[in-house]
Amino acid sequence: MNMIYFLIGCSILLALIFLAAFFWASRTGQHDDTYTPAVRILFDDETTGTDPEQKSDEDHV
Amino acid sequence: MSNQITIDTETQCYHCGDDLPVSPYLLDDKPFCCLGCKGVYQILSSHNLCNYYAYNDVPGQSQKLPSKHFEYLDEPTILADLIDYTDEKVTVITLYIPAIHCSSCIWLLENLHKIQPSVVQSRIDFLKKQVAITFKNDETSLRKVVETLVSVGYEPLISLQDVVKKQKSDHSERKLIAKIAVAGFCFGNVMLLSFPDYFGLSNLEQEFKTFFGWLNLAFSLPVVFYSGRDYFTSAYLNLKNKVLNLDFPLALGIAVMFIRSIAEISTNSGAGFVDTLCGLVFFLLIGKWMQQRTYHHLSFERDYRSYFPVAVTIITNGKEKPAPLSELELGQRILIRSNEIIPADAILLKGEAEIDFSFVTGESQPVKKTYGEIVYAGGRQLSGAIELEVVKPVSQSYLTRLWNNEAFFSQKDRIKTFSDTASKYFSIALLVVALSAAGFWMLYGESSKAVASFTAVLIIACPCALALSSPFTLAAVLSIFDKNKFYLKSTAVVEELARIDTFVFDKTGTITNPEAAGFSFNGTIGDEEQQLVSDLARNSGHPLSRELVKWLKMSPKYPTDQYQEKIGRGLSGIVHGRHVKLGSASFVGIKTLNKPLATTVYIVIDDVHLGFFSSALQWRTGFKDLIFKLGKRADLHLLSGDQDGDKQSLTPFFPGTRQMHFGQSPQNKLDYIQVLQSQNRKVLMFGDGLNDAGALKQSNLGVAVTDNINNFSPDCDAILDGTSFHKFPLFIQQAKDAVRVIHMSFIISLTYNFIGLFFAVQGILSPLIAAILMPVSTITIILFTSISARLYARKNNLL
Predict the structure, then answer these.
(1) Would you list which residues of chain A are within 8 Å, Cβ to Cβ, of chain B?
(2) What ipTM was assigned to the predicted interfaces of this complex?
(3) N or C: lower Cβ tally within 10 Å for chain A?
(4) Does domain B473-514+620-733 have CATH number 3.40.50.2300?
(5) Domain edges within chain A
(6) Share of chain A above pLDDT 70, in %
(7) What pLDDT is stored for residue B543 in this prediction?
């Protein structure tokens, strides 16, 4: 039954790590803007000057 | 017969989506409404940034307004107040850009480095409409960065006051979030550790009971001393000021629970109330957070400083030099360009001044000033540059003196909420019940039961659900109002709104629509004739002609020959070979039977009378309906800074001339509100301009009406978008319903308290009952308030 002490210790430690992670996220301002990153991720990568249609032709045999 | 003019809207500007003029500007087969829009497109396409137009249709903003000058951004003294951080290499600045509104904006502004390579990074905060820009010092300057932003159509709003405010507000919210996180963390763990005891432990497992108990106590420490600390300080401060509010029973409950838990666990006589304690603090803090949520993109505490420019151009020895407004001194010569605001009372020395005072005095027509006349601060110069000499310091001018009034220094009395009143009686009743239960058991000589019942009463009656009913109801109402473009400063404003019995209206800009100068045409006129009228009127600088040109929306086509203007009477000329006359009846040579009320412009082309344009004030949509509905149960007053030209047309709306007042100075307005309040009335003031600022501040509830919520609006309790003006009776109904919901939820939570008290006074309250009753009552209240607030909103057609 002594195992329980160890397990509870582990679970509290794990929970503390998550709490610390939350504090770190909050302090570095990750909760300040919860909208913009969701939009930002949807932007396409840069098309670097070259026409995308030409590129697809290269793969054709 | 009235004839509405329709304009072909099939084609739109590629950049901003505005209607195209007769001859649009073309580039790459794309039509543009003005040179500004075309210019932005040109810049974007040359930097390969045309994806801007791919993410959204017509993402741009109209570029018709002339842009401002930014020379002052080169001044180190001004710069120091604006930037966030600077070192030898880079500078970081956060700018507020009202034009940010779609994903294209985010994409373009975060790709700013492609247009201006010296920009290292630009990050957008979309909801706050802010962009944080990092740029290299040695390659560029703030002025150049700002000018780049302007060139792509994103002009930042630079104001000293807003910048300061931004940094202050962020901090307290983050602290509260941290407290919630700690309380939530402890609550979760304590729940897990308390369950075994509730389910029953076998004799074998008894050793765990003490272990779990001590562990629970350890978890309660941060909850009581970190998360719940504010309740103790607030209760203490309130007691010192002899005020009983809800924080007192809350603090008492927390303290008693904590002490009794220590006693039970250390003597091994029970499990304590640690889980109830942690849950209580956790839920309370969430309620507090709901109550504190505000709009980051709106500012309710603005005074003249955020309306006035950051800097002004001073002329010394013939040289122009920008300087911060605070350094402006008496006798200095200043240069005001077209569309700039005059920052201090000054004498006109050079140039033609035509000044729009509508925001300051409520006068709807621009005023012409000539050499040597005094120009009051706050006016906007409309045409050409002028030079002035400052005769009064910025803070002492006609307009800004208003802010020296005591109304701006004395803190507005905190709005008295229902929960404030109720909690006073609640606290007293609670103490009476607790003491009499203890006394009863003492009489029977059972002192241990007396202590048990006394503490149990304080624990179980701890008004958690009571404290949550107001924040959750009001937060729900706030978000309902928000969807209808009515933005409140705080949740307490909702309750105040339900109590209002007197409405005071400002005229210009508040009940009239500043965008649409109202013209209606009586008679018949074709497109070609309209073109002639527009081309003739374009020659005149008279406000009425200019409004007419704006309203007709025709682009110039024909030149005018033999143009003549008789001041105050009319215009005539030959346009496209036809003789066109417009002006008063006598000028164009027509006899009229009765004098029309509003300003009328008669049209005669080739000696044929076609009809007349009448310019009447355009009320905001639904104004008549609104007045009718509000007038049924409240008093209506009108305070206008304008002359009484519209008195007759307003008489049907406001009963008796006693309640309509014209030619009111800002101070008059403030005093008038004070008089109404001394008659024990709850006054709501609708205003829009700086001249209403005093009245808005003095009134019980100041509502700023605006057509663009990002524009400047004076200090107020609520901002109302002009398009939702007609919904105001619904808002009031919703506020009254919200108060009703709060009353009902009070009854519900009191019922739970009575159930708990039944066990508590007998001294048989087990931790399990408390642990069940507290969360159940809390969740009932949260569900009940948010659901019923939304049901009422649906009934009121607000959802």
Answers:
(1) 1, 4-5, 8, 11-12, 15, 18-19, 22-23, 26-27, 31-33, 35-36, 39-40, 42-44, 49
(2) 0.78
(3) C
(4) no
(5) 1-27
(6) 70
(7) 63
